[in-house]
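INFO batch 0412 | record 1 of 1 | parsing
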Amino acid sequence: MQRYVCTVCNYVYDPAVGDPDSGIAPGTAFADLPEDWICPLCGATKDDFEPQES
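INFO prediction complete | emitting tokens
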């Protein structure tokens, strides 16, 4: 699954890990995150994320 990086703080959302502190289970694709999900480090919205280049 595709990783996404926050363009504000460089946090990487890894679907294999999810975001347990926000109740996002491992295996959750970025596209399946709730629309109101925010970056756990800086509070940026999903719109501030881009696919991570491999």
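INFO post-check: The mean pLDDT is 97.
INFO record closed
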